[in-house]
Amino acid sequence: MATTTDVLAEITGMLVEILGDEFLLAEEVTMSTSFNEDLALESIEFVALAELLHERYGSEVDLMGFLAEKDMDAILAMSVGELVTHIGRVTHASLARTSSAAATAPATTARETNAAAPTAPAAAASAPTAG
User: Fold this and answer.
1) Closest CA to 79 of 29, 32, 23
2) CA distances (Å), 38 to each of 3, 17, 26, 46, 130, in order?
3) Nearest alpha-carbon partner for 11 in 59, 60, 43, 46
């Protein structure tokens, strides 16, 4: 499971990809870095970030959906840390659901697996013969 530091590093890498190395070399991205004040991210750059997040984390991390839950002031004040926390919460919940589903799934025994696959003589008997 990714740590907060890992997610922050991944988001920083995405921001470098979107904004360019030169811009971010002057700014260290931290949990308190704001997207608007510090990074001056424009709407098209948010879209690019949303696409990169989708590629990395899947559809569960929906940046546009996350932003839609906020009013304009909250969006303008949003920090990288809020996004990191959101990603951690979503990926943790997704991991918990996956683990829970795997734990409740019935185990397949070797006998069940072998019963489903025809044995070589049975397969040969059902194969059409030339004639």
Assistant:
1) 32
2) 24, 17, 11, 14, 76
3) 46
